[in-house]
């Protein structure tokens, strides 16, 4: 039976791509079947990223789409179980912390199939974040937990998870970053392609991404953030890659027009190679994403994270990341500090070396041999 490798949403793809490649190199010991739940489906959120990452087309697509958390999670579960019946499953491998991650882990655990979680043990300690709930529960269900930073092991121990099940391998997302950087699309080319004058970026620019429900689902939070961005854009041109959730909300709140401002360049969600090109040359990145905190640390680009907490503390302790919270004044002060003094320098965290997926493949091949379950 194959290892069922599950992706659902954009941040999963860059984690899975190097894993699929590393497993293929071990074939047939790590034969896998790529399952896409369909949580993300827009071309901008989906197909383009698959192409950028050289991910093979999914073997199975569950076509779940958008819905409330309960419905989306339940629908993934309903549609994933028959895949196990049809193809069998030596193990189920899930990455990250999206709803699809938890849903498939839960189905597998109930079927007594080994669950492997890549990017285990990260904690924001903020249960208002849907991803935090997904992380805690997926780790409880997992038989084998691969971690990106050593702090994850303390978090797992605190939750009573057997330390023998957790293995520090480094960061597969940084594997993708290193593998793709040579193909990154320069920001100027991207702007030209969008029919814009690349000259606006010549004096430096910032990159902005914003999509976390806690930041964009309420007008009284997102409104002041947009006003702060308008202020910042007067000093440093900002390229904003707008997530559909954010666009929809701003439209609903009648705030979309506020993004039309001097120095503000609003683009649809970008491909992976476009984002890498944008970020690698940016003066700074402003974000509420999880993965971008790590990517900017690997790139050595200063990052201001628009959140009160992070599940990726190493990016603050060793990398270029600073938490500024959601207060627009604090955000503007952070920007001011970078513009005046240059940003945090930081260093590359341990094992963020582009070879994490290879370590997973080597370890997993041995582990599966030892842990094959009688059925
Ligand atoms: C999901 C993940 C989040 C991740 C983010 C990256 C969960 C709980 N959240 O959030 O961790 O950082 O993906 O993008 O799993 N939509 C589209 N087209 C799409 C997908 C979504 O238009 O292809 C719109 C829909 O209006 C949808 C909304 O975006 O209702 C939210 O999508 P959803 O998948 O529920 O969560 P994200 O906010 O994308």
From TrEMBL:
Q: Which UniProt keywords apply?
A: Isomerase
Q: Enumerate the spans annotated as UDP-N-acetylglucosamine 2-epimerase domain.
A: 27-364
This entry's Enzyme Commission designation comes to 5.1.3.14
Superkingdom classification of source: Bacteria
Name a Pfam family for this protein: Epimerase_2
User: Single GO molecular-function term?
Assistant: UDP-N-acetylglucosamine 2-epimerase activity
InterPro entries in the record, alphabetically? UDP_GlcNAc_Epimerase_2_dom, WecB-like
Tell me the protein family, please: Belongs to the UDP-N-acetylglucosamine 2-epimerase family.
The record's section on NCBIfam families has:
wecB (TIGR00236)
Question: Any idea what this protein is called?
Answer: UDP-N-acetylglucosamine 2-epimerase (Non-hydrolyzing)
Q: Where does this protein come from, organism-wise?
A: Thauera sedimentorum
């Amino acid at each position: 039976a194959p290892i069922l490798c599950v992706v659902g949403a954009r941040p999963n793809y860059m984690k899975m791509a190097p894993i699929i490649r590393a497993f293929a190199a071990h074939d047939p010991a790590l034969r896998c079947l790529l399952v896409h739940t369909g949580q993300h489906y827009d071309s901008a959120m989906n197909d383009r990223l698959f192409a950028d990452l050289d991910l093979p087309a999914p073997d199975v697509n569950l076509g779940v789409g958008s819905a409330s958390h309960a419905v989306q999670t339940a629908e993934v579960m309903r549609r994933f179980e028959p895949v196990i019946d049809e193809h069998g499953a030596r193990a189920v491998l899930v990455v990250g912390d999206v709803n699809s991650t938890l849903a498939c882990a839960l189905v597998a655990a109930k079927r007594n199939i080994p669950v492997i979680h890549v990017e285990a043990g990260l904690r924001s300690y903020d249960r208002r974040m849907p991803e935090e709930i997904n992380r805690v529960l997926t780790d409880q269900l997992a038989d084998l937990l691969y971690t990106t930073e050593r702090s994850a092991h303390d978090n797992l121990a605190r939750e009573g998870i057997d330390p023998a099940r957790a293995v520090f391998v480094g960061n597969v997302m940084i594997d993708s970053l290193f593998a793709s950087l040579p193909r990154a699309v320069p920001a100027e080319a991207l702007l030209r392609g969008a029919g814009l004058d690349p000259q606006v970026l010549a004096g430096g620019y910032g990159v902005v991404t914003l999509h976390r429900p806690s930041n964009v689902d309420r007008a009284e939070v997102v409104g002041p953030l947009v006003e702060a961005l308008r202020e910042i854009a007067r000093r440093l041109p900002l390229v904003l890659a707008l997530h559909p959730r954010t666009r929809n909300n701003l439209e609903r709140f009648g705030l979309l027009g506020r993004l039309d401002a001097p120095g503000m360049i609003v683009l649809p969600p970008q491909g992976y190679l476009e984002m890498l090109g944008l970020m690698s040359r940016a003066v700074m990145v402003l974000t509420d994403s999880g993965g971008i905190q790590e990517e900017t640390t690997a790139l050595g680009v200063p990052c201001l994270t628009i959140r009160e907490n992070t599940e990726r503390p190493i990016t603050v302790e060793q990398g270029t990341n600073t938490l500024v919270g959601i207060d627009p004044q604090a955000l503007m002060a952070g920007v001011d500090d970078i513009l005046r003094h240059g940003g945090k320098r930081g260093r590359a965290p341990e094992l963020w070396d582009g070879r994490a997926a290879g370590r997973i493949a080597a370890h997993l091949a041995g582990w599966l041999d030892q842990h094959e379950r009688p059925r």
